[in-house]
Design goal:
- It is globular and about 60 Å long.
- The protein starts with a strand and ends in a 5-residue tail after the last helix.
- The protein has helices at residues 37-44, 59-69, 98-111, 144-154, 174-201, 214-217, 231-243, and strands at residues 3-8, 12-19, 22-31, 51-56, 74-77, 115-120, 123-129, 135-142, 206-210, 226-227.
- Helices cover 36% and strands 25% of the residues.
């Protein structure tokens, strides 16, 4: 029997089914701002599953999910005490975002270690596995959308734009100049962070990108080996297999 997997992030909440063999075909996406009992009813109508594994970085919506399944299904909220399969080479592991923990689980099991998971979302996060396979730490930086909206919010004459691939680094209009700054600037920031991390980790780390903006943002970042859009959900599935060992 399958498990329901919920990746509850700041912008979108992604749902999937998984079992002992891995992720299954069914998927759904709910804008996180719209996540409530009605949205869950519509998304889950007719689905059969035995347990629910959740990675949430939005406490208010985690409460919505908990209340919705109360008395119906067993729910495992991912955290640093979950059966992750690795230890921590850092203080205060309870402060690590649950999505980053799920990414690290999948990174370790699917791609090995050492490694770095780069999650391109509202923020871009870097989660590092050491040469021993433990969670070593990472970095958190603004996402590309945050870089574009910041300029519109803080300046009188700059518009809000949507990031798209610039034709040239030298913009001929204000919008083109902003797109160049956002896209090439963001990629340069990511490459700079990776360069510093690679100098510290040792070994030959596998660098895996994930998140809604990964396919676009990772273009031209030669350090990234793989773009895996299912990294977070895959990590959740692995944790569910350990948390619900009789359900698969």
């Amino acid at each position: 029997m399958a498990w329901l997997l919920i990746d509850n992030s700041n912008t979108r909440t992604k749902l999937a089914l998984g079992d002992a063999s891995g992720l299954l075909e069914w998927r759904a996406v709910i804008p996180t701002a719209e996540l409530d009992s009605g949205a869950l009813n519509r998304a889950l109508e007719g689905l059969a599953f035995t347990g629910v594994a959740v990675a949430s970085v939005v406490p208010a919506k985690a409460d919505v999910i908990s209340t919705y399944f109360e008395g119906k299904k067993t729910v495992h909220f991912l955290g640093w005490k979950s059966p992750l399969g690795f230890g921590f080479d850092m203080e205060s592991p309870q402060q690590i975002g649950n999505d980053r923990l799920a990414n690290a689980v999948a990174l370790r099991e699917k791609y090995g270690f050492p490694g770095i998971a780069v999650d391109f979302g509202t923020a871009v996060t870097f989660s590092v596995l050491s040469v021993e396979g433990n969670f070593q730490g990472g970095a958190i930086a603004p996402g590309m959308a945050g870089m574009t909206s910041y300029l519109a919010d803080r300046t009188a004459q700059l518009p809000e734009i949507e990031a798209s691939e610039p034709e040239s680094a030298i913009g001929k209009t204000t919008v083109e100049a902003m797109q160049s700054g956002a896209v090439f600037g963001h990629r340069g920031m990511v490459r700079g962070i990776l360069r510093e991390m690679l100098s510290e980790i040792g070994g030959e780390p596998k660098i895996v990108a994930t998140g809604g903006g990964a396919a676009f943002a990772a273009k031209g970042i030669l350090e990234i080996d793989v773009v895996d859009p299912d990294l977070t959900l895959g990590g959740l599935c692995l944790v569910a297999a350990r948390a619900f060992p009789c359900a698969g």
